[in-house]
Sequence to fold (140 residues):
Amino acid sequence: MVEFRYGPVEILLISFDGDRPGAALGRALRELVEEKTITLLDLLFVARDADGELRIVEVDDLPQKAELPDLELGELGLAGLDDVEELAADLPPGTSAAVLVVELAWARNFASVLAASGGAVLHQERIPAAVVNEVLEAAR
Fold:
């Protein structure tokens, strides 16, 4: 069987209030890592000032790591500057976000078995949780 070092990877751009994600978001992210649901490969923060200038900051350059102490990143630099700028292109002035590159660790073994059997993922689509919950709530 082919053993993959990493499972599928997703790149997320998440917004939050203020210029930092806050302690609760940091704890939730740490829990996912500790439960081995995800592997956090890379993390950057972006902010667009009132004049529209985009500022990109790596997690190691933040004071107190933005309340994410001892967070291990697996592959720093995986999210390239061009990727980050493209993701943040529509970030409104005066807002902040984080770019997370996460391995779906729960799917690593499945991906290995799928590849070994000659299979492949032909299509994948992610529906944001807010949309799923809104649709299901409206259907009640």
